[in-house]
Amino acid sequence: MADRFWLLALSSGLIFPVLSFAGMVTGKVVDDGGNGVEAVIYADAANGEVSKAPPVAEMRQKDKAFVPRVLAVEVGQTVRFPNEDFVFHNAFSASKGNAFDLGLFKGNAKYNETTLSKIEKGPEAGVVKFKAPGRVDVFCNIHTSMSGVIVVLPHSYHTRSKPDGSFTLKTPASGAYKIHAMDDSGNEAVIAAPAGAGSVKITFKERRTTVPEHLNKEGKPYKPGDPNY
Q1: 41 shares a domain with 114
Q2: What's the pLDDT at 193?
Q3: Per-residue model confidence as pLDDT tens digits over 59-78
């Protein structure tokens, strides 16, 4: 897998203030050009509050891409992977503790991987329940250009920044922890939680925007695209 570049710049200026108080942090995530970055923001606390009944999350397969490309969920939460394209997709992950293989889907139907025949009573979408905390890299076994990242957390201290990069994050009321930001290419930045009112910003630099090198679900290099797919 290609090297990931994740660098962090901390500034003491007043351009993007981050105000911290018990249980809440607000701030902004930007790239090295000062543009807002949409990212998943989360605290790295070992444990804490959990959602009583987290909703089923979705990572759609649309226009040969995962949407959203980065997603945060909690341990035990379920994620659906609906295929909104009219071509075959096969979402999978080899990430330790959360590996999965959804098999072959086209639209809202599942197909036999050998005969390419439709499974009449098959599910309408692949569904995965994530049981272990950690990062899950998601790929398509057919389209090497498709990639996504799911961050599985043991708590509910996570959010998503707005298009302008601004965010409000619920955090542990006490204890040492760090704040992570992960963008839709899987680049990550980390800062220490500010003590009291502060002035910091999270800046991604040298962001990798290409899909990381990876093997197919069998651990082998991808073959040239099959026109049937």
Answers
A1: no
A2: 78
A3: 999 999 999 999 999 999 99
3-state secondary structure of 129: strand
Range of the structural domain that residue 119 is part of: 50-154
Task: Work out the burial of residue 200: count CB atoms within 10 Å of its CB; fewer than 13 is exposed, 13-18 middle, 19 or more buried.
Answer: buried
Residues 162 and 69 both lie in one domain: no
For the chain, how many residues are written? 229
Beta bridge partners of 115: none
Per the structure, the count of domains in the chain is 2
**Which amino acid appears at position 164 of this protein?**
D
Is residue 145 one of the residues assigned to a domain? Answer: yes
Same domain, 23 and 104: no
Q: 138 with 163, same domain?
A: no
How far apart, in whole angstroms, are the C-alpha atoms of residue 122 and residue 126?
A: 10
- Residue-wise burial string across 34-58, b where 16 or more C-beta atoms lie within 10 A, e elsewhere: eebbbbbbbbebeebeeeeeeeebe
Phi-psi map region of 228: left, alpha, beta (phi>0 left; psi -120 to 50 alpha): alpha
Say if CB 31 and CB 173 are below 8 A apart.
no
pLDDT band at 146 (very low <50, low <70, confident <90, very high): very high
Same domain, 77 and 24: no
pTM above 0.85, yes or no: no
Asked whether residue 202 is assigned to any structural domain, the reply reads: yes
CB-based contacts of 144, cutoff 8 Å, min separation 6 = 211, 214, 222
Tokens representing residue 218 in the block: 């069998």
